[in-house]
Amino acid sequence: MSTLTATSAQEFNSARQQAFIEEWLNFFTGRPNDLLSFEEVKQNLRLQDSAYKGLQEIDLDKIVGSVGRYRDFTRSFLPKRDQSSERWRRVDAVIHDRGYPPIEVFQVGDVYFVRDGNHRVSVARTHKAETIEAYVIAYKTPVAIDKDDDLDDILLKMGRSEFFEQTHLDKIKPEQELIFTEPGRYRLVQEHIAFHKYLKETEHHTEIPYEDAVASWYDNVYMPIIERIRQSEILKGFPGRTEADLYAWLLLHRAAFEKEIKALGYVPTEDLIETLKRERATNPFARLMGLFRSNMDLNSMPLKVERAKFLAETQLDEIRPKHNIKFTEAGCYQLTQSHINVHKYLKETESGSEISYQEAAGSWFDNVYMPLVNLIRNHSLLEMFPKHTEADLYLWLVSRRATLEEEQHAMGKIPDEKIIEELIQQNPSSSLGRLANFLRQKLHLEGVAPS
Known about the structure:
alpha/beta; Conserved hypothetical protein from pyrococcus furiosus pfu- 392566-001, ParB domain; 3 domains; six-stranded mixed sheet; 18 helices
């Protein structure tokens, strides 16, 4: 049995620190932080045929997941948990003496999933190794998988592949550009096509070929809405989204709105587009927050439901009855819970013992949230943004600080006062102008041209 050394302890602690920093940065940049679960990928891609490929030299950065330990490491295989310290250090000691024993992996497309040897991969990645020997079992996959894909990306590729295989829209309408950025939308379109086929057959009292229904749906349902989207130029307000995304959004919201007002078929597309355009044009804060939650599946969850879930899980109503935390945008409560999770981890690391989630929520409120809110109050920042809340500004300032810390490589070294002073020094003529100016800066940092 290998002896645990001070060097291995230092290397493990360094890896844990890197894992924390990586998780924080990935949270704000939207990059995937979690390893993929092989079982989830296998189930969603319906993998069956496999073949043993023998011992091979594989690229470590193409290992994106694990069979059983996908929760224990970050996407770059840094250790997430202190509980893995002893095993990690023993593997580290063996590797210093004898090198890297081969691991076992499943190959899916161009990426790999660890079957055995997760800690060896973690140690190798920590020591900046580029390759490792592995016994490879390769699965045939219907879609290509890239090393930067998360599960949503894989589901999108699978959904797109199945959609065109079943509808042949790419052959019927070669000019089509039907591209979605959210899983499940291709299946939604297939339902639209099936319903359109039913309506056409009812109208003509005869069955029509499926491919005729696909072409008719594209010409008479999809493209007229796309043309209105193009004419309105509303896509400029949704960076990272596509025309097809807005088509799905408009139809889903029209159905919900018509059901709500009991006016089936009486809500024109133009009205929905104009409503959406006004909201996006007058609320740049919404666009700003969208940059920080672009990979979250919010599914338009009602704000009241989201707040109720947040309060139920944090119990802030009981432990801090005067908290008054209210956001004006969906997704902000989930972002705030992530802040509490980070605070809980730091407190447990500092004390060396586990604390309850409610205790962590109270500590976060007292030591993180309220000091920043008091600064917001002292500088009367809320007067500059009358349509928003102290909680909105808290989240905005924290997000801005994280962006600057990443940009300047100064993790934990940019004080709250500096961010507040930066905001005050901006001097557009209105509060919305201030928000828009900050948005332009954020878009510039992200490399996205502002609309």
